[in-house]
Specification:
168 residues, mainly alpha, two-stranded antiparallel ribbon, 2 strands, 74% helix
Length: 168
């Protein structure tokens, strides 16, 4: 059993951490996604500086890597910029939603590159891909805080529900 003064101190510290996290959590996620995508995208645009260059080229082997990898890099830079500018977040989430499924293709198309021992023994490339689940989760957290752009743009289904709730 924790002594009351210590429990009170721990509770106060806990509340401070929660309050601080609530204040900076989503802005930090937005910043982290933005910087990560700008960085990784810029590396793809430059050329072979990206460690993912060969993986992308092998995954979409029917496309010219000298064209598709820089285009993917440009797409990623656009995602990053959109996450850094709050007014563009919705656009960033849409761009991310279209990009993310493609990042998992090597797990299916190139298992010999992504797994040392299937299904759990991931190579570095496989780990690089699986970490995208964290990006997806972060984007979902950011999206959940966006809400309706304006009150009058809420779906029409919501208005009868709001009226029903206020009448109750």
């Amino acid at each position: 059993m924790i002594p009351a003064p210590l429990a009170k101190l721990v509770s106060k510290f806990d509340n401070m951490v929660i309050e601080f996290s609530a204040k900076i959590g989503v802005p930090f996620l937005r910043f982290a996604i933005g910087i990560t995508f700008i960085w990784f995208g810029a590396l793809k645009m430059i050329g072979h500086l990206s460690p993912a260059y060969d993986l992308v080229a092998a995954t979409v082997y029917w496309l010219t890597p000298e064209i598709i990898v820089p285009l993917l890099g440009l797409w990623e830079v656009a995602i990053g910029v959109a996450f850094l500018i709050p007014a563009l977040t919705r656009i960033g989430i849409v761009l991310l939603a279209f990009q993310m499924p493609g990042t998992f293709l090597p797990l299916v198309l190139l298992p010999e590159i992504c797994f040392e021992v299937f299904p759990f023994g991931l190579t570095l490339e496989g780990q690089y891909i699986i970490k995208n689940l964290i990006i997806i989760g972060s984007a979902l957290v950011i999206a959940s805080g966006l809400g309706a752009i304006k009150q009058n743009t809420a779906p029409t289904v919501a208005k009868p529900l709001q009226e029903a709730n206020s009448a109750a």
